[in-house]
Amino acid sequence: MHANGAALVVQPKPNQVVDQESNTNYTQRAQWLRAAVLGANDGLVSVASLMMGVGAVKHDITAMVLAGFAGLVAGACSMAIGEFVSVYTQEKLPNPFQAAAASAVAFSVGGVVPMLAALFIRNHKVRMGVVAVAVSLALLVFGIFGAILGRTPVTRSCLRVLIGGWMAMAITFGFTKLLGSVSL
Questions:
Q1: N or C, which terminus of the chain has less Cβ within 10 Å?
Q2: Cβ(99)–Cβ(28) under 8 Å?
Q3: Percent of the chain residues topping a pLDDT of 70
Q4: For residues 40 and 91, which has the higher predicted lDDT (pLDDT)?
C-alpha cells in the first residue's frame, strides 16, 4: 500500500510466473530445481564414469567403490565451491552458503546411485552391467525432470542426457582400458 491508500502493484519480469495471491515467484524456484536436477545429473555421470573407468582395469569391487566415493566427495566439494563463488560475486541472489550446500547435495544424490548399484555385486561383469542399467534409468528420470522444469520436449531431453551419459562412461572406460593395457 502506498501512503495514500492505493494498492502497490508489482509487475513480474518477462518469463516469470507469479502467484498473485502470495507474490511467490515460481520462475526463480524452478531455476533452482532445474539447477538441482542438473547437479544430480552431473554427479551421476561423473561418478559412474569414474567407476566404469576403474572397472575397466580393476575387477576389485573395493577399488571401484572407493574411486566412486572419492569422485563423489571431490565433485561435491568442487560444485559447492564453484556455486559459492558464483553466487557470492553477484548481487540479488540467495545466500551463497545455501547455494553451495544445495549444489553439493544435488551432486551427491546423483553420485550415490552408481555406488549403491555396485556395492553388493561381487561378479565384475554383472556389477558393470548393473551400474550401467541403474545409471541409465536415473538418467532417464533426471531427463524427465529437466524437461518438465525447462519446458522442453521430454523425449528429446531424455535421449540427450542418456546418450551423453553413455558416451561419458564409454569414453572413460575405453581410454582407461587403453591406458591400462600400456605398461607405464
A1: C
A2: no
A3: 79
A4: 40
Which CA distances in Å does 60 have to 65, 125, 128, 175?
A: 9, 11, 11, 19
Place of cell 528420470: 141
| Residues 86, 36 contacting (CB under 8 angstroms) | no
Closest alpha carbon to 56 in 128, 120, 136: 128
- CB distance 99 to 87 below 8 Å: yes
The pair phi, psi for residue 127, each rounded to 5°, is: -60, -45
Sorted by where each begins, the domain ranges of the chain are 23-181
pLDDT in tens, 1-26: 444 444 434 444 454 444 445 555 55
Q: Cα dihedral sign for 148, 97, 107, 90? A: positive
Average pLDDT, the chain: 84
Could you give the angle at the alpha carbon of 109 between the alpha carbons of 130 and 121, nearest 5°?
A: 25
CA neighbor of 53 nearest in space, from 139, 170, 181, 184: 170
